[in-house]
Specification:
CATH class of the domain at 3-168 and 201-226: Alpha Beta
Radius of gyration: 19 Å
Distance between the termini: 32 Å
Number of strands: 12
Order of helices and strands: EHEEEHEHEEHEEHEHEHHHEHH
CATH architecture of the domain at 3-168 and 201-226: 3-Layer(aba) Sandwich
Bound molecules: NADP nicotinamide-adenine-dinucleotide phosphate
CATH topology of the domain at 3-168 and 201-226: Rossmann fold
Largest sheet: 8 strands, mixed
Structural class: alpha/beta
Mean pLDDT: 93
CATH superfamily of the domain at 3-168 and 201-226: NAD(P)-binding Rossmann-like Domain
Low-confidence stretches: none
Strand content: 15-25%
Number of helices: 11
Shape: globular
Length: 306
């Protein structure tokens, strides 16, 4: 039985990925800063900020999935928070690499999360592909450095995959959950001018992409993990309203109000471009939820039933 080590495995993607991996016959262990337990897997502890890691976790792993990172949408981007966002991804990756150097031999694959923020907080009609350059803004620079850490493993000869993820749809956590709240109160509306694109992916599809990254040894390098259907914020909001049976009564939330509320972080909701899913599809991945409406219906029905 192969062992998959997941960092940040107690988060939204990690918890669901663990279920998928154990269901597919893998042993799963996690490296956790909080020490939270997840059913069905062994928890090792680490503290990347202090350079502490239980090296046994890395020594025993056939595959590593590096999901850890301070949540980019949870708190205002103060200087300290920005530092935490970067270090929790980059320093943690470097710490994994140091442990790997001491215990090489077993590891077959290193897979890292990255984000469509790689291409920057830009609104345009351009469709970004994996060959597009990273943006020079905060998220672009964060993703570039995050991916560079993964390249340490590549240079050491380990197969390395980088998953540039769009907004992951779930009804309990993340961006959709935040959007559903005003919708339930009948005060939902589009944000800014509503023309910004929102690259998105169903939670089940992102976990299936990670599984493919482990099992398909032809995957190497960066892959965008976004559904093929491109939607603007206005289209996204009206589809959510349709699926939840709400009417959009209110005008769009003006950009200045969001900037006043969220500061620089508002860029992640006010800007966005189209991102291509062609490369992962050409690699043989088939999206279970390529279109937004059925994806939302599935997520919201699941919530109603559970
Ligand atoms: N969800 C999305 O829409 C989305 C979109 C694009 C990219 N991504 C990226 O994919 C990865 C996983 O996403 P997710 O939604 O599952 O994230 P999440 O729910 O925020 O969970 C991330 C996990 O990282 C660990 N963590 C938090 N702060 C940390 C810190 N300061 N240092 C080290 N570890 C820390 C925590 O695990 P422990 O408490 O166990 O340590 C946490 O459960 C993240 O890196 C995220 O940026 C997610």
């Amino acid at each position: 039985m192969e062992t998959v080590l997941i960092t940040g495995g107690t988060g939204l993607i990690g918890r669901n990925l663990i279920k998928m991996l154990t269901g597919n016959g893998y042993a799963v262990s996690i490296l956790s800063t909080s020490g939270k337990k997840v059913a069905g897997c062994r928890t090792y502890s680490w503290n990347p900020a202090s350079g502490i890691i239980d090296e046994k976790a890395v020594a025993d792993a056939d595959h590593i999935i590096h999901l850890a990172g301070a949540n980019i949408g949870a708190k205002k981007w103060t200087t300290a928070r920005k530092k935490e966002i970067v270090n929790s991804r980059v320093k943690s990756g470097e710490l994994l690499f140091e442990a790997f150097q001491k215990h090489p031999g077993k590891l077959k694959t290193f897979i890292t999360a990255s984000a469509t923020g790689y291409y920057g907080a830009i609104t345009s009609e351009k469709i970004f592909t994996e060959d597009s350059s990273p943006a020079g803004d905060f998220l672009g620079e964060t993703c570039r450095r995050w991916e560079e850490t993964a390249d340490l493993f590549k240079k050491a000869g380990t197969r390395t995959v980088k998953i540039r993820t769009g907004m992951v749809l779930d009804s309990n956590e993340g961006a959709l959950a935040r959007l559903l709240m005003p919708m339930k109160l009948h005060i939902g509306s589009a944000l800014g001018n509503g023309a910004q694109y929102m690259p998105w992916i169903h939670l089940d599809d992102i976990c299936r992409i990670y599984l493919k990254a482990i099992e398909d040894s032809t995957l190497e390098g960066a892959y965008n993990a976004v559904a093929p259907q491109h939607v603007t914020n206005e289209e996204f909001t009206s589809t959510v309203a349709q699926v939840t049976g709400r009417t959009l009564w209110f005008p769009k939330v003006p950009a200045f109000a969001l900037k006043a509320m969220f500061g620089e972080m508002a860029a992640i909701i006010l800007e966005g471009s189209r991102v291509s899913s062609e490369k992962i599809i050409k690699a043989g991945f088939s999206f279970r939820f390529p279109e937004l409406k059925p994806a939302l219906e599935n997520i919201l029905r699941y919530k109603a039933e559970n």
